[in-house]
Each structure stands twice: as C-alpha cells, then as structure tokens.
Amino acid sequence: xxxxxxxxxxxxxxxxxxxxxxxxxxxxxxxxxxxxxxxxxxxxxxxxxxxxxxxxxxxxxxxxxxxxxxxxxxxxxxxxxxxxxxxxxxxxxxxxxxxxxxxxxxxxxxxxxxxxxxxxxxxxxxxxxxxxxxxxxxx
Length: 139
Prior knowledge:
The chain is α/β, with parallel strands linked by helices. The protein is built from 4 helices and 7 strands.
C-alpha cells in the first residue's frame, strides 16, 4: 500500500487505512529519517485505536505502554538509543514482540534478528516541508 503526498491534517485518515488493511499484524516497524513523523503517525494510530493516555516518544524509556478504550495494550518502542541487540534482550523485547499485542517500533534495525516472521514494514519519506509519502508492506 502506498499513500503519496499526505499532510499532517490527513494523519488520522492514514492511520485508519493502515489499521483497516494491516490490523491483523501485531508488529509494525517504522523506517524513516529523524523528524519524518514516526512518532506523530504512531500517536495518530493509537488515537484511532482508542488510546486516551498522554502519548510521547519513548526515546529515553525505550518502551511506552498504552491502554485502549477496549482494555487492550499497545507497546510503543524507540530503539534509537540502544547500543546493541543485547540491550533489547535485557528489557525483554521478545516477550513484547510475541505477546499478541500491537507493537509499534521506531528504529527497529537493531532488533531485526528478533522480529517475528510476519510484521508490517512502514517507510515514511519526506516529500516537502509538510508533505510525506508512506509505503506499507507486510513482510
């Protein structure tokens, strides 16, 4: 699925399309350069799934846990500051990834060997100052 040239005002529609098409996949990996909108899109996805909690980037905590209105957990990871795979294993990332709960992963490259056989790869590209392009592909 490709969504070309969307603006921030369209984020909730983008989130709805992702959920509608790929909601059955429980691990979503976001690939984008710094500042491209990974966390912003993650927040929109969580809002569409009924999260009412305050959401923020887990840059320093590595993982944030959110609860939906249906009492379902969502795990939001930011692996940017991890030095190696062992650090991820120390926080029990495998337990999260195979929990059956939705896991939204920013900077997933470092944990690639731990990813399940099926996951969603989401690539976000900057097209202009306020414009993004998104490609989502199951792996």
